[in-house]
Amino acid sequence: MSEITDIRSKKGYLCDMDGVLYHGNILIEGVKEFVDWLNREGKEYLFLTNSSERSPMELKQKLGRMGLEVPESRFYTSALATAKFVANQSPGCSAYVIGAPGLHNALYDAGITMNDVNPDYVIVGETRNYNFESIAKASTLVRKGARLIGTNPDMTGPDEHGIIPACRALIAPIEMTTEKQAYFVGKPNALMMRTGLRLLGVHSNEAAMIGDRMDTDIIAGIETGLDTILVLSGVTSASMLKAFAYQPKYVLNSVGEIPG
Prior knowledge:
Layout: H1 3-8, E1 12-15, E2 22-23, E3 26-27, H2 31-40, E4 44-49, H3 56-65, E5 75-77, H4 78-89, E6 94-98, H5 101-109, E7 113-114, E8 121-124, H6 132-143, E9 147-150, E10 156-159, E11 162-165, H7 167-178, E12 183-184, H8 190-200, E13 207-211, H9 214-224, E14 227-231, E15 250-252
Parallel strand pairs: 1-4, 1-13, 4-5, 6-7, 6-8, 8-9, 9-12, 13-14, 14-15
Antiparallel strand pairs: 2-3, 10-11
Helix pairs in contact: 4-5, 6-7
């Protein structure tokens, strides 16, 4: 069986978004054909993103503006995974949050209240509203005993302007100031991957993980027992592969190569 035939034979796909489907607000070439193929072939798929900025409804609308109609149920974000984790760990807890509305909404929906005086957690995700005051406040609260959580361990992410800072870069000053290490919930954390597989409804040996990052997408797929597909449309280039002790099963230029 050829590589592309093997990829097409899978029943389900966990698929990253940033760098796989789009850069910022620009759809990557071949993505529409890929999504059309998934629907036409009756494949199970879930867009599993480490970005915590947007809710599933906002992601549905974002893709809709690009000409893709994808149901809200096809999205699972690190914000949802973080909210689920924190709520399970400490029901009814409170948090000081540095992040976008997608993270705030997920936490509210999980029963977590906002608190900038004596929170149980400091939670950090991607945001465009990042400033010295919020870093200083978060550092003070962590030193006073709040536990530090990051929605995902991505240091950088792609947008239409190039490579920009992501969650791990934003949380680093707080870690350095407090000498406390954050716990990261998103990929490659097995918590998010197991939830994603359960939502997909397909056994791991019948599914594949598609992503553009070796350090989150590909290692997450390998450690969850999925076949892995690295696409070179995001942050990883072919020349970077030799730096990693593990390798993807398949390497494609983009998801546009998958449709039959």
